[in-house]
Design a protein that fits this description.
This protein is an alpha/beta fold. The chain is built from 20 helices and 8 strands. Helices cover about 55% and strands about 10% of the residues.
Length: about 450
């Protein structure tokens, strides 16, 4: 695990002796004060970082980075190199190719020596990266390549400190996107420990510039991603990580477990539990969750007032299909038929044997003779069950069916089945064919 500081480097304001003006920075948390031309130096010492990645254009204050760190470690300054680098920077024009990154090698060495002066564990891994101004798409993607090179230097469990004080305002945006991107791609967590900004606008009467941590803003993107995962896939894992309330955290996680394994009645229970917790919670004191909770409530309200079990299964089936979870959609659809028949005959829908008995209603000759809607339901059941078996058993599709057909045909199956299950006429079947007759017929099958 390494502590890494990533810091864009600006042009700065030069004095007559080619040096840069310093500012006096203050950390509000502990009151520590650092006087330096750039805030990265203060951040490096305060957080005892292992390496620094400086990012800048050909016009950035590279010679000051070299001079400053050499001075900090009381090492001799190579004035010929310092002047040569300064002249290269002065000559640089954004339209030109500029100078080679190799000229910054002495700057890299100076940074590494500086870090070792207060952190013996630091390695010689610090580096300066040259980027373009980003005036067009070509330059923007060139910069993106550089940022992705930097991302390859960040490993799982590393701690990243981000300085967004200096340079073009587009650079912090790039860094933000890069960090968000690699946090999404990496299989293990990369810890963003701080997003720091030296706020010159808030300089006090003593000339102290506060260093503020804007990490909470970076977390907004995780809330956005977590909300998207929940809305589109019913995946609340990220939200459960971010929310601080332990009860709501656990409830959202359990509900997501239930959705992913498709335990319908557990989903229902968790939805009800979560609804109660949200009603009792003081959302105004829960930060970003206050805004996310509105979306969660919409999900809850969709299912909250459904009393019949088969209707709940149908609504879950519809929701699964809307969110491209087709296997769960078909399983819920087929099981809603059996649950409805249990309901009609007052059978325990949670009992496997009773469900098998209820299923046999569709195959009972007398029932079909008494109510033609059951014949239609039987046909739909067989069609949907063939799809369910292909899904559940990972069966070959054969020549007649494709997954595209099964996806496209779902809505037709759904509308037909729900129209039959909601038909009041099927509730009269037990008056014409008793449960005892169903049992006798079932035993003969």
């Amino acid at each position: 695990m390494a502590k890494i500081l990533i810091s864009p480097l600006g042009v700065g304001r030069k004095k007559e002796d080619r040096r840069y003006y310093s500012a006096t920075y203050k950390f509000n948390e502990n009151g520590k004060i650092y006087k330096t031309p750039f805030v990265a130096s203060a951040l490096a010492e305060e957080n005892k970082v292992d390496k620094i990645f400086f990012i800048g254009t050909g016009k950035s204050m590279w010679e000051e980075v070299y001079y400053h760190f050499q001075e900090k470690i009381n090492s001799n300054i190579d004035f010929n190199y310092w002047e040569q680098l300064g002249e290269e920077i002065e000559r640089f024009d954004y339209k030109s190719e500029g100078y080679d990154e190799e000229i910054l090698e002495k700057v890299n060495i100076s940074i590494n020596k500086y870090l070792k002066s207060f952190n013996f564990k630091s390695k010689d891994d610090s580096k300066c990266f040259l980027i373009k101004y980003g005036v067009d798409e070509k330059e923007l993607f060139y910069n993106l390549d550089i940022f992705m090179m930097i991302s390859n230097e960040i490993h799982p469990e590393d701690e990243v400190y981000l300085d967004i004080t200096h340079s073009f305002r587009s650079i912090p945006l790039f860094l933000y996107l890069m960090l968000d991107f690699i946090r999404t791609l990496k299989t293990q967590e990369i810890h963003i420990k701080g997003v720091y900004y030296g706020m010159f606008e808030a300089k006090d009467d003593d000339g102290l510039v506060p260093i503020v941590d804007l990490k909470s803003l970076l977390e907004i993107s995780r809330w956005i991603r977590g909300t998207n995962d929940f809305v589109n896939y019913g995946n609340g894992y990220l939200i459960s990580e971010l929310v601080e309330d332990k009860g709501i955290k656990k409830n959202i996680k359990n509900m997501t477990h239930a959705i992913n394994i498709n335990y319908i009645f557990r989903i229902r229970k968790q939805i009800n539990n979560l609804s109660e917790k949200l009603n009792k919670a003081n959302l105004d004191d829960m930060g970003m969750f206050k805004y996310v909770s509105t979306t969660i409530r919409e999900f809850i309200e969709r299912f909250a007032n459904i009393e019949k079990d088969y209707k709940f299964q149908l609504e879950m089936s519809k929701w699964f299909n809307e969110n491209s979870r087709y296997s769960s959609a078909y399983i819920c659809l087929i099981e809603s038929i059996v649950t409805r028949l249990c309901d009609i005959y007052d059978l325990d829908s949670t009992n496997h044997e009773k469900r098998e008995l209820a299923k046999s209603v569709m195959f009972n000759v007398k029932v079909i003779r008494e109510n033609k809607r059951i014949l239609k339901l039987k046909k739909e059941y067989k069609s949907v069950n063939r799809i369910r078996k292909r899904i559940a058993h990972a069966m070959p599709e054969g020549n007649k069916a494709t997954y595209v057909d099964d996806i496209d045909n779902f809505n037709n199956y759904f509308e037909t089945i729900i129209s039959i299950l909601d038909d009041k006429s099927i509730e009269e079947i037990p008056n014409k064919v008793s449960i005892e007759e169903i049992k006798r017929s079932y035993k003969k099958r």
